[in-house]
Amino acid sequence: MSYISQRNQAFLFVLEIGVVLFIITLAGTACF
Questions:
Q1: Coil, strand or helix: which one is 23?
Q2: What's the pTM value of the predicted model, to 2 decimals?
Q3: How far is residue 32's CA from residue 30's CA, in Å, rounded to a whole number?
Q4: What is the Cα–Cα distance from 23 to 29, expressed in whole angstroms?
Q5: Angle, alpha carbons 26-30-32 (nearest 5°)
Q6: Does residue 32 sit in helix, strand or coil?
Q7: pLDDT value of residue 13
């Protein structure tokens, strides 16, 4: 049970980083 929740937490963490990088890329494209 805790293993699954740990995997879910890691997945959400990676997803969050992906979203942040995506937003930064969009902002960079809009600036230049």
A1: helix
A2: 0.61
A3: 6
A4: 10
A5: 120
A6: coil
A7: 96
Amino acid identity of 23?
I
* Cα distance between residue 20 and residue 9, in whole Å: 17
Integer Cα distance of 8 and 21 in angstroms: 20
DSSP state of 7: H
DSSP for 1-32 reads -HHHHHHHHHHHHHHHHHHHHHHHHHHHHHH-
Tokens linked to 31: 């600036």
| pLDDT tens string 8-17 | 999 999 999 9
User: Quick one: pLDDT band at residue 30, thresholds 50, 70, 90?
Assistant: confident
